[in-house]
Amino acid sequence: MDPTAGGIIGVIIAIFVVIVLVKSIKIVPQQWNYVIERLGKYRRTLEPGPRLLVPFIDTVRARVDLRERVVNFPPQPVITEDNLMVSIDTVLYYIITNPTGAVYNIDDYLAGVEQLTTTTLRNVVGAMDLEKTLTSREEINSRLAAELDKATDKWGIKVTRVELRAIEPPASIRDAMEKQMRAERDRRAAILNAEGVKASEILRAEGEQQSSILRASGERDAEVLRAEGQAKAIQTVNAAIHSSKPTNRLLAYQYMQTLPQIAQGDSNQMWFIPAELTQSLGAIGSALGGMTQSQEQDDELDVEVDTSVLQGDEAAKRALEAAKRAASQVADVADDKSKAGDKRAIEE
């Protein structure tokens, strides 16, 4: 045998052995499963690690990733219960739990999951109005996840969760919603402002009430103290008058001094001289007459005049002169008021 031909045959055999080894040994990565077919029929599923196959008989039908996967579906138009078109963008999270079912039970499980998500989303959102759709994302997510998980179980797929990434209503609806939200914010601001003004007015009224109460209490205490002072003053004067035992001449003199003050009021158009004035003048005259008689008797009897009697005569004389002046002033004031009254009557 030619050595060259033997070398070629040896190389061919070596290459064949290498190919057989490559076909016989499969290394499956972590979190992956290989679906193996033998002569076109499902044989087994290879788990992670090195595995042996029958070369040229066993083949790898599919390599299945067992990790959780995320699929972002394009926005889908959905009609709500109140006949408004909204665009919803969804994100799906799923795990392949049965590689055989994912390979043999459906042609393309990703396309099937997408279509199933779209139809389920339309069924769920179609039973809600727009406002509930915008405010019930958690409810929609949970219902979608439950429906999809139930439908994809026979495919060997478990849907872990579904998220609505965006809900876009029409532009006209967005404008109306913005106006509504702006009006709602304005209303809340007006309510808060009114409540603040109300609280401020209440506090101000309470402050004024307390201030008025304190002021009235202070005025009351002042009036009480003033009245008590006047009462004590009157008692003191009364006690002093009774202890000094004033005579009629002194009282008449004080009365005559008070008459001009009575006549000085601007509102007094007419006033009457009381009868006590004549009695006072008579008391002063009798006092003077009595003093004159006592003086004559003292002169006839040549009795020494007491100093106190002389002082009483002088006081009586001064009282008489004061009475005359008071009567003159009273008459002048009455005359002036009478002329003023006549003048106004003429003018009217």
TrEMBL record:
Residues 334-348 have a biased composition (Basic and acidic residues). Its main location: membrane. CDD domains: SPFH_paraslipin. The keyword Transmembrane applies. Keywords: Membrane, Transmembrane, Transmembrane helix. It comes from the Bacteria. SUPFAM superfamilies: Band 7/SPFH domain. The chain crosses the membrane at residues 6-22. Residues 23-181 form the Band domain. Residues 326-348 are annotated as: Disordered. PANTHER family: STOMATIN-LIKE PROTEIN 2, MITOCHONDRIAL. This is SPFH domain-containing protein. It comes from Salininema proteolyticum. The lineage of its organism: Bacteria, Bacillati, Actinomycetota, Actinomycetes, Glycomycetales.
